[in-house]
Design goal:
Pfam families: AAA. One of its GO terms (molecular function) is ATP binding. One of its GO terms (biological process) is endosomal transport. This is ATPase AAA-type core domain-containing protein. It contains ten helices and six strands, in the order βαβααβαβαβαααααβ. It is an alpha/beta fold and 245 residues long. Strands 2-3-4-1-5-6 form a six-stranded parallel β-sheet. Helix 4 links the parallel strand 3 and strand 4. The relative contact order is 0.17.
């Protein structure tokens, strides 16, 4: 069966093997990528969604083509102001209308609609029903977190046992939050050294300690999209799993 509509659910930031841009680069098709979260700010009120129509028209001219919508769950968010609600409602209606009008795939190929979703519980039935397959990208497993931490921290002050301890403590972290953790730990180490020596310290001379990383962990707050990943009850016609990098 030829799949025309596919949704990717997960935290894809910095996941090079799972990131939609990386997937599209490996495809022979031309790709058109749209970030849904920024579309409402570019579309005027009263249903003027010229930009969205332009994206679909561009995709149809480039057949075979992959039309990727990042942050697709933003279509179903609930803005605070009535003006933004009206703007988003017009955008959503236009998206549903254009997706429904896409031609069937032929021997020349067609348009593959790829939606990237971080908060699947925000999707309503209208948007969810457009997709024939939903792929879940799991959070990094302990072995993946161990590898990522070693790549990101790279401190001679940390032993293999320290890294294994941190890999266990960072369950639920995406690669993005591991990067944030490593950067904050480096800032902690720099602050301690500069306070002790009363001068600027070269970054190459800094040694991040286990205490620096643990202190940074107390500052990291995982978003709702991560904390609810395992409990999400999003239904789909076909479900698959993407392997973590």
């Amino acid at each position: 069966m030829r799949i025309r509509y596919c949704a990717l659910i997960g935290c894809f930031s910095r996941h090079l093997k799972c990131h939609p841009k990386a997937l599209l680069k490996q495809s022979l098709r031309v790709s058109v990528i749209a970030f849904v979260s920024v579309l409402p700010s570019r579309c005027r009120l009263r249903g003027d969604v010229v930009l969205l129509h332009t994206l679909f028209d561009d995709a149809l001219r480039r057949i075979p083509c992959v039309l990727c919508f990042d942050d697709l769950d933003a279509l179903c968010s609930l803005p605070k102001s009535p003006r933004d609600q009206e703007r988003l409602r017009a955008l959503k209606c236009a998206w549903l209308e254009r997706v429904g009008r896409l031609p069937a795939a032929s021997t020349k190929g067609g348009v593959l609609v790829l939606g990237v979703i971080n908060n699947p519980w925000l999707l309503d039935d209208d948007v969810r029903s457009q997709f024939e397959r939903i792929l879940f990208a799991p959070l990094p497993h302990e072995a993946d977190r161990l590898r990522l931490l070693k790549q990101l921290v790279r401190s001679p002050a940390l032993t293999d046992e320290d890294y294994r301890h941190l890999a266990k403590r960072t369950e639920g972290f995406t690669s993005t939050f591991l990067s944030m953790l490593a950067a904050d730990a480096l800032r902690n180490a720099r602050a301690v050294c500069e306070h002790a020596y009363d001068r600027a310290i070269d970054a190459d001379a800094l040694k991040v300690t286990l205490s620096d990383v643990l202190t940074s962990m107390d500052k990291v707050e995982l978003p709702e999209s991560v904390s609810r990943r395992s409990s999400s009850g999003t239904a789909s016609k076909t479900e698959s799993v993407l392997t973590s990098p």
